[in-house]
Amino acid sequence: MSLTLQEVEHIAFLARLELTEEEKKQYQQQLSDILDHVARLQQLDTTGISPTSGILSSRSVLRDDIPKEGLNVKKALENGPSIEADQFKVPPVLD
Amino acid sequence: MKPSTSLNVKSSIAMLDSGEISSVELTNIFLERIQEHEPNIHSFITLTPDIARKMAKEADKRRAQLNKSQEEIPPLLGLPIAVKDVLCVEGVRATCGSKILENFTPPFNATAVQKLIDAGVVILGKTNTDEFAMGSSTENSAYGLTHNPWDVERVPGGSSGGSAAAVAAGFAPAALGTDTGGSVRQPASFCGISGLKPTYGRISRYGLIAYGSSLDSVGVLAKSVEDVETLFRLMAGFDERDATSLNRQINRKICADNISIKGLRIGVPEEYFIEGIQPEVEEQVRMAIDAFADMGAEVVPVSLPHTEYALPVYYLIAPAEASANLARYDGVRFGLRSTNEDMLHMFTRSRGAGFGPEVKRRIMLGTYALSAGYYDAYYGQAQKVRTLIKRDFENAFENVDAVAAPVAPTTAFKIGGHGDDPLAMYLEDVFTLPANLAGIPGLAFPVGLDKSGLPVGMQLMGDQFNEATLFKLAHAYQQTTRWHLKHPEL
Fold first, then answer.
1. Residues A16-59: pLDDT tens digits?
2. In chain A, which end has fewer C-beta atoms inside a 10 angstrom radius, N or C?
């Protein structure tokens, strides 16, 4: 399994990661090696086997919707990189 | 005054309870030890001596008041501990070993931390970790690597390497860690201490900064199994803030004198004694298994035929979950923001600059495994094989009470020993990953030294919710052996 540079760039875009040219080349090689290693899973016949997505047998975790006090605005905003008027400030989404 | 290396949880509590020592004095013993030797070990990312002294002072005051009014003393009142830097402690920065969280100060406590604070602990600091707990050596931290106290040219294991090194070096009698693929057990083994990864869902994950949500477990590292049990029992239980935490009864205290393990059945899976394993590791683990037989346990072979697939399954599922969990680091609400140029570049540049190489690698791998056209072949197939691995254990536990195996194929390796080869590093986890995939508990403890004098660890794995049997067996072992009492000379 060998990934192309274009595939690496596509994955990086999906993951919203800016990579240097050097990183792209490095990951192209390393990810190809790892994918080769994991490819042996494909040898196993898993017909009729159901997937495990979590460990706990499915059960209801719903509870009554009773409002409780959460973090106050000041605390919730404390770690924001840019704050204005009690809100997180971000660059314009629409031009 | 006793040297800090000989102080464990049990002896510290006994001294506090008898009035032989105050929490301030005890805390100072550990802080002085840290001050002297931490420069050679670097087990902490953030030390909190001022907070520790303040908490210790309050603990002493509280003890005096409670004694006066003859009220019950909280079980760990005044005991100093260290906390892995992926668990939130209110008001103390939590970096996860990452530059992206360099300035993140959590506004709340993780539930596991809160429960121990309620029990009276004093917090010494936040320990080093591979970035976002992704690694097996603590070399992937953005805050420098941690040295193994047994040999400073070697790694302490990982990702809870800071916690393991801190306990082994006598900086703290116990520390919290987390285990997603072996990150408590393997560093415990490399540093010659005891470490528990509980059943998935036993301890709330609220306030544990997420890596792989179906695998992450909060665990304990300490100098004895008895100490591990003490902290485990205080942290376990349902938490309404974590829907995967479980309301299951917690075992009564197991570790006691003259415990009998007669008639317990221990399974030995040949799949864990593979070619390439360091001969002394196999030898010492087999000797420990013989010791269990001598104590009256019945040792039988078991088969876990899908063991060899645990590695590829884990390295698809964990990165897939990580790629989703780490999507939250977008520069909006917390963490690094590199540019305000436009939204897309704010995302891509903040993430590109904030994450280190291993985190990026796993995000890329996970994104690929989940992407259109590859989902069924990679992630879907991994989830199905996970079912087979889980069934292997279910079948085994129909016949045995615990499964015994090495923790890692080797003892602690040299710093930089795996160079730039991520696959070689992943192979370090080959014996610890299966318990996380199956959601079962695993308990690591020291069973010998190799010819270089480095600790060898073994692990016992049990059926879901059966930590009690693991405590019973390992405590019985520590009652008759002295490996857990050995500590490195710094």
1. 999 999 999 999 999 999 999 999 999 999 999 999 988 876 67
2. C
SS3 B324: helix
Kindly tell me the burial class for residue B152, based on how many C-beta atoms sit within 10 Å of its own C-beta (0-12, 13-18, 19 or more): middle
Q: How far is CA B172 from CA A91, B27, B379, in A?
A: 45, 9, 40
Query: Which amino acid type is present at position A88?
Result: F
Interface of A with B in 22-81 (CB under 8 A): 23, 27, 30-31, 33-35, 37-42, 44, 46, 49-56, 61, 63, 71, 75-76, 78-81
3-state helix, strand, coil in chain B (%, to 5): 45, 15, 40
- CB-CB contact of A18 with B351 (8 Å): yes
**Consecutive H or E run containing B38:** helix B23-41
Helix (H) or strand (E) holding B125: strand B122-127
ipTM score assigned to the predicted complex: 0.95
Residue B6: active-site member = no
Please give the domain boundaries of chain B with CATH numbers for all domains.
4-262+432-485 (3.90.1300.10)
Contacts of B331 in chain A (CB under 8 A): 81
pTM of the complete model:
0.97
Contact across the interface for B368 and A71, Cβ inside 8 Å: no
Beta-bridge partner residues of B455: B449
| Element housing B40 (H / E) | helix B23-41
Angle B4-B6-B12 (CA atoms, 0-180°, nearest 5)? 75
Mutate to test the interface with A, among B240, B384, B387, B393 (most CBs of A within 10 A): B384
pLDDT in tens, A53-86: 888 766 777 888 999 998 999 999 999 999 999 9
Residue B109 DSSP code: -
- Mention every residue, 6+ apart, whose C-beta is less than 8 A from residue B166: B41, B43, B44, B82, B127, B172, B175
The CATH class of the A5-43 domain is mainly alpha
Q: Which residues fall within 8 angstroms of residue B209, CB to CB, at 6 or more apart?
A: B86, B87, B88, B94, B96, B101, B132
Going from N- to C-terminal start, the domains of chain A cover 5-43
Which amino acid, residue B27? T
What are the Cα distances from residue B224, in Å, to B6, B11, B425, B476? 12, 11, 28, 11
Strand partners of residue B126 = B46, B83
* Contact assessment for residue B439 and residue B390, using Cβ atoms and an 8 Å cutoff: yes
CA-based nearest distance B105→chain A, Å: 7
**CA dist B461 to B36, B258, B428, B440, B446, Å?**
37, 22, 18, 7, 15
- How far apart are the C-alpha atoms of B161 and B312, rounded to whole Å? 24
Catalytic annotation present for B253: no
